[in-house]
Every structure is written in C-alpha cells, then in structure tokens.
Design a protein that fits this description.
By secondary structure, this protein is of the alpha/beta class. It has eight helices and ten strands. Bound molecules: iron/sulfur cluster.
Length: 215
C-alpha cells in the first residue's frame, strides 16, 4: 500500500512541473501550495482590505472558505445568486468584470499548462480574459489532465455532470452520470474556453494547491 507521504511527494513533483509549464506559458506568478490554509493566507495578504472582488460560481473557492476570510478583511464580494433575474445578473457581471480582483477555478489544466473552462453564460471566462486588474486562479491536483482532449473530457464528464447534480438541473447527464451532449435549454456547457497562453494585457496569479478541491 502506498503511504500518503509518498502521494504528497508525487503530487509535489507533478505540481512543480506544471508550475514551470504555466510560467513558460506567460503565467509568471504561479506557485504551488502544500495546503488550503497556506493558499488562503497568500490570497488574503495579496488582496488586503477594501477591494472589489468578482467571483463566479466556483465550488473550489467556496469549499476553501476564502470568501468569508476576504469579507472579514472588509472586501466587497461581487457574485450572482441563483434567484437573481437576468437584468440583475448582467449588472453584477459587468461590475465583477471591472473589479480589482477576479477569483476563479478552471475545470481542467493540462500537463502543458493549458487552462480549460466550460461555462453556461461566459461571464466567468470573459472576466478571466480581460477587465479585472488581476485574475487569481486556484485549483487542486484533481483538475490536472494529460492533454487538451482529456481536459475537455474532464470538464464535461466530471465537472459539468457533478455541477448539474449539485444544481439539480433536469439535464440528461443527471440520470446517466455522463455527458450526453444534450440540446436542453438548461444546458450548462455552452462555452468552451482554452487559455493556451496568458492573455496579453491581463495580470494573473495562479495557485496550484496540493489537495482535492471542487469538481
Ligand atoms: S452538455 Fe448537457 S448532458 Fe452534457 S454535461 Fe452539459 S448539461 Fe449535461
């Protein structure tokens, strides 16, 4: 049986390699964190107080308890909720796109450091491409995929299916537990975005966390 320590060492090596790939793709401010607490501490110190912070529906970020910590530091969190109508959401998304920071987590990151998002509305990816003063991406090792093909597979068949179950959407994948590439008007997988390299004018911080986080 493999000891947990060995898995940690294996992950650390994998994550350090991925860090170097992301740096070579232009994401200079990429760092590996051993655990959630050290990652949260870093983000809280980077953001400080009194800032406007946009965030999408990331379960990674919510599971870390990061938003509570940032609120305690007197920061404003800008995010939509399930009950908001379309007009209200648009106003929130535009405000989030002009925030000081935008927090997000991709659905997959390949060994070569390509970053993959799948979205229903596209508000998150547009904010990750341009607008906010700085984008902060966080993810655990469970998001790592061998290549773009397996990253897209992961985004659809693990991240999107699990999110459909969480959101109790009446989409076919909720019954079959695999993406059926549906035509449902409740489909949450409408926009596929791949960052091959850092978007030219957008500043990034990327935190790779040695833990399992989000979907
Ligand atoms: S495309 Fe449809 S079936 Fe596939 S994961 Fe998205 S919502 Fe589910």
């Amino acid at each position: 049986m493999i000891k947990d320590d060995n898995i940690k060492i294996f992950n650390k090596k994998l994550l350090e390699n991925l860090k170097n790939k992301l740096i070579s793709n232009g994401f200079k401010n990429t760092e590996v964190f051993n655990d959630v607490d050290s990652a949260k501490k870093y983000v809280c110190s980077l953001i400080g107080n009194g800032k406007k912070i946009g965030v999408g529906g990331s379960q990674t970020i919510r599971s870390m308890g990061l938003l509570e910590d940032l609120k305690q530091q007197n920061n404003e969190i800008i995010t939509h909720t399930k009950d908001m109508d379309y007009e209200t959401r648009i106003q929130i998304w535009l405000k989030a796109q002009n925030a000081d920071f935008y927090l997000a987590s991709p659905q997959a990151v390949t060994y070569n450091g390509e970053i993959i998002f799948i979205d229903a509305y596209g508000n998150r990816v547009s904010a990750c491409i341009y607008g906010p003063k700085k984008v902060i991406l966080l993810f655990g090792y469970n998001k790592i995929a061998k290549d773009i093909e397996s990253g897209i597979w992961r985004a659809r068949n693990i991240a999107a299916v699990t999110n459909n179950i969480r959101l109790q959407r009446k989409n076919p994948c909720v019954s079959t537990a695999i993406c059926e590439d549906c035509n449902s008007n409740l489909r949450i997988c409408n926009v596929l975005t791949i960052l091959y390299k850092k978007p030219t004018y957008t500043e990034y911080e990327i935190l790779i966390i040695n833990d399992v986080l989000g979907y």
